[in-house]
Amino acid sequence: MNTNRNDHPTDRLDLPGDGDATAGAAAPSSGIEVIGVSCEFGDFRALIDVDLNVPNGSMTALLGPSGSGKSTLLRTIAGLETPSGGRVLIGGRDQTGLPVRTRNVGFVFQHYAAFKHMTVFENIAFGPKVRKWPKARIRERVHELLELVQLSGLAGRYPSQLSGGQRQRMALARALAVEPSVLLLDEPFGALDAKVRKDLRAWLRRLHEEVHVTTIFVTHDQEEAMDIAEQIVVMNQGRIEQTGSATDLYDAPVNEFVMGFVGEVNRLGGRLVRPHDVEIHPVAAAGTTEAEVDRVVRLGFSGRVELTTVAGGEEIWAQLTRSELETLNLAKGQRVHVRPRADAVTKEDTGALADALSEGTPASPTPIPQPPGLPV
Amino acid sequence: MSAEPTAAAPAPARRPGGDAGPRLTRWALRYTALAYLALLLILPLGAILAHTFQDGVGAVIDAITAPDAQAALRLTLLTVVIAVPLNTVFGIACAHLMVRGRMPGKSLINGLIDVPFAVSPIVVGLALILVYGTGGWFGADLAAIGIQVIFSTPGIVMAVIFVSMPFAAREVIPVLQEIGDDQEKAAATLGASGWYTFWRITLPAIRWGVSYGVVLTTARALGEFGAVTVVSGRISGETETLPLYVQKQFETFNSVGAYSASLVLALIALATLLALNLMRRKESR
Predict the structure, then answer these.
(1) How many CB pairs under 8 A join A and B?
(2) How far apart are CA B70 and CA B76, in angstroms?
(3) Which residues are bridge partners to B63 per DSSP?
(4) Could you say which of B191, B196, B205 has the minimum Cβ distance to residue A116?
(5) CB-based contacts of B269, cutoff 8 Å, min separation 6
(6) CB contact under 8 A, A107 and B189
(7) Which of A25, A29, A24 shows the shortest CA–CA distance to A11?
(8) What is the pLDDT of residues A54-85, one digit of tens each?
(9) pLDDT, tens digit (0-9, with 9 covering 90-100), for A318-375
(10) How far B185 CA lies from chain A's nearest CA (Å)?
(11) I need a labelling partner for A212 at 20 to 30 A (CA). Which of A80, B217, B222, B269 fits?
């Protein structure tokens, strides 16, 4: 859709990733640079000296527990929050101190922020109308977007007549209508039920492939982040812990927080280790710890074994394949010997992960409250 | 209004299963409310209507078209036309400041808004005389440039503005709080200026709060008696508002005159309510 629009000057940064993928498409998109941004609310330090580089045309997730500063960072980029220090650059231009309305960002709010007294058409036409586009062009643009977000038949409806997912897509279309240089989504699927979330996730990924506008979205769901984003930024207590691809974060977490937040972990002998990296031996071997089998659960292809270490009393679980389970043939109460695999990613457990998570959302996706009127 | 049929729909389905207790309570509540309304509202209003027309329609028309009655009506409408828009604009601005503004002294303003509710209207009238009367702070200076406030139209308008000030703000504040600022923030990200956002987003969202504010302000401005009595001087045909006129006719045993003027007052108030309801119905259609 944006591929043919050359009338917009593209002030792109030469950022990593701004290469072949976007070179062909002259999208009016831009990279985002956040340099040393801090933000306080009273005594609470929401952001502490944050640096972030978002390549042009990429899809980036800000992932973290609640209170980690991810939404504040997004709102600061949009200009909805004023940082106490640092700079925000969009497309190489310093936006610090500029009002929201001049930044040309598309922002999608968690609770849609639909204009309730306007129809779907009027909602989407709002931005172009503010910019005084000619009527015919507005009409054309709105219909183009309605098609893109698959709401073509619903132009005359009011937001109250739409489902949650439809409202969210309308909000997306509204944000995209003015051809923003960046698209910012604040927990875009947070208020939707699980099924709709999954559908919209896949849909957003396809949309991004089509539109290719630099996109940042906020989520506390690591599965969602890994599913959609090319780059994931893990945040905790106002700071960025690690930035990288899903594989980077999973295979090479820089610390125990990242390790615990992007996947499941056990505490084994004072170290954090992933359940699929726990080895079970019938007899003692180098580096093993004695443990007692509490429970064996077979889940189709894989299975889980729940154990308690004899010496430390640590409750752990191991993820094994079906054949491994059959070979071991474990029974409840049996004494075995466990150790992390030789190539396992482990981190020392200092208790920091537990501290961080006890204040916020647990690493596993939390049940989402059902908005009224949506099918369960 | 439009939501009523849908809201009432599940009730009949539940009724067969319901026992006699809740039904009796419902019945008692309903008829108590009706009796209350009948005794305190419908009966007296009906009595006015009956008394008004006791000497026939001609007498009523004569009473309403009497020069002093016409002058009182004009003065009342003038005060309404000045006070209601001013207080509506003030009320919206004040509510916006209270709900969206970030500034010290908000609770002080919050308390000040309610002063006209708390202070007796007579006191308001006396206070105006103290400030703008002949012996008041500004009275002499204003008189020197030819402006008479007390015992004249400006004083009456000021008294009415004062007593009807809080209604719009008090109606708009909760609505503004309820809608939140997400829509306004969204408009800003789409490039809208503060004014544009206010006219296109905020005002439409709070329109019913504003409308009720206007209706209440109008009702109060139409009917204000206490504060106006003190500052008006009650010169027939000049500084007499419709409520003052009603009282004077009543005191001079011109009951048809008093009731006819009352009827006019009631009709104006009803007309504003009706206008509001028609607007709502048109929208929810």
Answers:
(1) 59
(2) 10
(3) none
(4) B205
(5) B218, B219, B222, B223
(6) yes
(7) A29
(8) 999 999 999 999 889 999 999 999 999 999 99
(9) 999 988 888 888 888 899 999 998 888 888 777 766 666 665 444 443 333 333 333 3
(10) 7
(11) A80
Q: Which residue has the tokens 């939390």?
A: A366
What is the maximal distance between C-alpha atoms in chain B?
Answer: 79
Order of all β-strands in the sheet with A315-321: A278-281, A335-340, A289-299, A302-309, A315-321
- Residue A309 token pair: 């270490």
Tell me the three state secondary structure of residue B101. coil
Say whether A100 and B185 touch across the interface (CB within 8 A).
yes
Chain B contact for A125 (CB, 8 A cutoff): no
> A175 contacts in B (CB within 8 Å)?
189-190
pTM attached to this predicted model: 0.77
Residues of A in contact with B193 (CB under 8 A): 101
Tokens of B50: 């009956």
The interface predicted TM-score (ipTM) is 0.77
